[in-house]
Amino acid sequence: MGLFSNLAGNFGSAPPPLAPVPMPIGVIPYYTQHQQQIALKVRERKMSFSGDDFTVKDAMSGQVMFKVEGSSLSIRDNKKRTSLLIPAIVDARGQKLFKLKKKLIAIHATYIGTAPNSDEEVFKIKSSLSFGTKLTATFRNVAGDGKETELVLRGNILDRSAEITTSSGIPVARISRSFMNAGEAFFDKQTYILTIAPGVDAALLLAICICLDEKANESD
Q: Does domain 2-65+125-219 fall into CATH 2.40.160?
């Protein structure tokens, strides 16, 4: 399992483990290779577009999994001001995976994930009016059948409490302030846990979390 060999753990009395998806889901096949659910500890971004960097670690082992480079902040298309570049996601070795930018002229908050060395769109995350928070990520499922695919986040934007499902309702991830490890809860107010089902792209799910943070900052 390579990078993910030490990430799966015993969640004890936590909610039932997320079941493996029928086929891999994601845009980077490597990050769908985990065969058990994994949990990432993510730091809440207190200031929108703050420009600070932080690491994302395995919640159980403390192993660094990703880095979010907030220092990539810049205005794009300065005359038209059509988008704002927000954090880039890199892997533990420093290899850039995605650039994220927010469209400034969209009716609903819209975030675009692009290839690391170009402006090619890899995925789109869009908010919509609904009871509570709803974000919809659309992308071509490179890791699976190659078809256009949707993942939907629904939850509480301020508490960072949410569930992410396929368009047909299959749970693929959970976001929560609390985490159970052998019956012991641990956490602080500035971090939360992203739990990801086997076979689902961890890097893509992290990108969805970052967009959730940016959306929450709009509400502050």
A: yes
